[in-house]
Design goal:
This protein has 2 domains: 5-179 and 297-326, Rossmann fold (3-Layer(aba) Sandwich); 203-292, Tyrosyl-Transfer RNA Synthetase (Orthogonal Bundle). Helices cover 54% and strands 7% of the residues. It has 13 helices and 5 strands. Helix 3 (53-69) packs across helix 12 (268-294), helix 4 (87-96) packs parallel to helix 13 (297-326) and helix 9 (213-221) packs antiparallel against helix 12 (268-294). The radius of gyration is 21 Å and the shape is globular. Bound molecules: adenosine monophosphate and tryptophan (TRP). Adenosine monophosphate binds at residues 10-11, 19-20, 22-24, 146-147, 149-150, 183-186, 195-198.
Length: 331
């Protein structure tokens, strides 16, 4: 009996942050032993916004190195680059014909992007979730580990699958989002009302996987807190402190009660550097191993070539089934 399948991806549009690590990659690593997993670098999603080609190229390889350095084993999992498997684009076109303008119009990320990129509001931004549905459905995925912000897109993929299956019988597995209990939405250090994001204009709000220990310490020391002076999990009254507690809990495995007890009567001057230290020690081996991997491009190339070959085999099986169901004449 095959294991349940997992698919997830991150687009190489910015340097990976502690948010993408805690919300996504850390969980991918934990899931790799119990599931049959595909982890993708979704470069085709990345071009919905304008990128400098050299930067996109560099970030794609860096992201691959960071996946592996975080503990994803390319032998156990299929790790690859989306544009290397042409089936994603083909299924995306087909699924676009089973996606409704209205439902795409309701996507929160589309609404946000329309505001942010009004100077380049291209059709790719609108059909972005259809390509994401193709990513997921192409591999008959059961679970999609993502942060809270991507839940709506996974639900849309499921709705498209239900609609398609309703017409043609059981073609696609129905995927479910898999959201971590702690850390599904890490917030900006400078503005705890907004998400920590790799596209944040204020780099002080985000901690990057490749940040130096010094930079990480400085960012945490400057993190926005409050004047209450107690380490307590209360996102409404103390959003900054609750965010720091979430980060500390995710990287140390300690519960909120344990953290409150640990810093009882100690004040933020002790708490903030302690969170910084825990993050520095979590990210240090990842940064060092990424740097080592990036110094040998041939090893990275072997990983993405092997990944693409294995992904394409599964993808082609699904597409053959889909083509036949729709009525396309086989080759
Ligand atoms: P992004 O970095 O926005 O491309 O997102 C990559 C993955 O990380 C997605 O699964 C997101 O849901 C997740 N993610 C990104 N930022 C955060 C955050 N601040 N907190 C939790 N998860 C996040
Ligand atoms: N849209 C996701 C994000 O912004 C990235 C993504 C693309 C993805 N395809 C996916 C995530 C498939 C999970 C599964 O983070």
């Amino acid at each position: 009996m095959a294991d349940k399948r997992i698919f997830s991806g991150i687009k190489p549009t910015g340097d990976l942050t502690l948010g993408s690590y805690i919300g996504a990659i850390k969980n991918w690593v934990e899931l790799q032993n119990d599931y049959d997993c595909l982890y993708c670098i979704v470069d085709m999603h990345a071009i919905t916004i304008r990128n400098d080609p050299e930067v996109l190229h560099r970030r794609t390889l860096e992201q691959l190195a960071q996946y592996i350095a975080s503990g994803l084993d390319p032998k156990k999992n299929i790790v690859y680059i989306q544009s290397h498997v042409a089936q994603h684009a083909e299924l995306s076109w087909i699924l676009g014909c089973y996606s409704m303008m209205g439902e795409l119009n309701r996507m929160t990320q589309f609404k946000d992007m329309s505001r942010k990129h009004s100077d380049n509001l291209n059709a790719g931004i609108f059909t972005y979730p259809v390509l994401m549905a193709a990513d997921i459905l192409l591999y008959q995925s059961d679970l999609v580990p993502v942060g809270e912000d991507q839940k709506q897109h996974v639900e849309l993929a499921r709705n498209i699958a239900v609609r398609f299956n309703g017409v043609y019988g059981d073609v696609f597995k129905l995927p479910e989002p898999f959201i971590p209990k702690v850390g599904a939405r890490i917030r900006s250090l400078t503005d705890p009302t907004s998400k920590m994001s790799k596209s944040d204009e204020d780099p002080q709000g985000s901690v990057y996987i490749m940040d130096s220990p010094d930079a990480i310490m400085k960012k945490f020391k400057r993190a926005k807190t409050d004047s209450l002076g107690c380490v307590r999990f209360d996102p409404d009254e103390q959003p900054g402190i609750s965010n720091l507690m979430t980060i500390y809990s995710s990287v140390t495995g300690r519960s909120f009660d344990e953290i409150t007890a640990e810093f009882e009567g100690k004040g933020y001057g002790v708490f903030k550097p302690a969170v910084a230290e825990a993050v520095i020690e979590t990210l240090r081996p990842i940064r060092e191993e990424s740097e080592r991997l990036l110094s040998d491009r041939s090893q990275l190339a072997e990983v993405y070539r092997d990944g693409a070959r294995r992904a394409a085999e599964i993808a082609e099986d699904t597409l053959n089934l889909v083509r036949g169901k729709i009525g396309f004449v086989g080759k």
